[in-house]
TrEMBL record:
Signal peptide: none annotated. GO terms for molecular function: DNA binding. This is DNA-binding response regulator. Keywords: DNA-binding, Phosphoprotein, Transcription, Transcription regulation, Two-component regulatory system. InterPro entries: CheY-like_superfamily (IPR011006), Sig_transdc_resp-reg_C-effctor (IPR016032), Sig_transdc_resp-reg_receiver (IPR001789), Tscrpt_reg_LuxR_C (IPR000792), WH-like_DNA-bd_sf (IPR036388). Residues 7-120 form the Response regulatory domain. Pfam families: GerE, Response_reg. SUPFAM superfamilies: C-terminal effector domain of the bipartite response regulators (SSF46894), CheY-like (SSF52172). Residues 136-201 form the HTH luxR-type domain. PROSITE patterns: HTH_LUXR_2, RESPONSE_REGULATORY.
């Protein structure tokens, strides 16, 4: 990984810690931006890059665990907690809420870097999945109303004849709509279309009838 591919945010009220972490990350070719309070971090403009948030537990304006709770529903990078006052309940709460790691000062550089790399890799994967879903949603919006009716019938396993009967159209017309759905959704196969429908959480309300032709 190189500095232009990701960023590390540091939130710690101890200037010495911020400087030390910044120097450590710089020595590994990683870009870092430091804040002395949770408020400063929340208000800052953040680049659209895979990221990691190194977050102290004890901050002047808000507890780090509380900040984790407040931003849980938003688009925020994976968190690596650092603290000089660690305890088991806090670490359990942090990890259960999705933190990558919970490190008690003094911690080793190796442990911190391992956690940071894991967090950035996790964020990169999440961003990739989100980008794929956004693309699928745009493809879905390109479907006509009729094609949106055809899609769930196709992925449910109904035969063309059954799906056509369900919609009150001819089998030939159904096949045309089905082909258009496959093309617009960029599905390479029926199995691929099923996977896409699952990602889009399209409800399947029909099932293939036994004995159908």
């Amino acid at each position: 990984m190189t500095a232009v591919e990701h960023i590390v945010f540091i939130v710690d009220d101890d200037e010495r810690i911020r400087e030390a972490l910044g120097e450590l990350l710089a020595s590994h070719g990683m870009r870092a931006v430091a804040f002395e309070s949770a408020c400063d971090y929340v208000k800052s403009d953040k680049p659209d890059l895979p990221a990691c948030l190194i977050l102290d537990i004890e901050l002047p304006d808000i507890n780090g665990l509380e900040l984790q709770r407040q931003i849980a529903d938003g688009d925020h990078p994976p968190i690596v907690f650092i603290t000089g006052h660690g305890d088991i309940p806090s670490s359990v709460r942090a990890i259960k809420s999705g933190a990558v790691d919970f490190l008690t000062k003094p911690f080793s550089d190796a442990d911190l870097m391992t956690a940071i790399h894991a967090a950035i890799d996790q964020d990169r994967k999440k961003r990739g999945e989100r980008a794929e879903l956004d693309t699928l949603k745009r493809h879905y919006l390109d479907l006509t109303p009729r094609e949106r009716e055809v899609l769930p019938l196709v992925v449910s396993g109904l035969l063309n004849k059954q799906a056509a009967a369900e919609l009150g159209i001819s089998e030939v017309t159904l096949q045309i709509h089905r082909r258009n759905v496959m093309q617009k959704m960029a599905a390479a196969s029926l199995a691929d279309l099923v996977r896409i429908a699952e990602k889009l959480e399209i409800p399947i309300t029909h099932s293939r009838r036994v004995g159908g032709n």
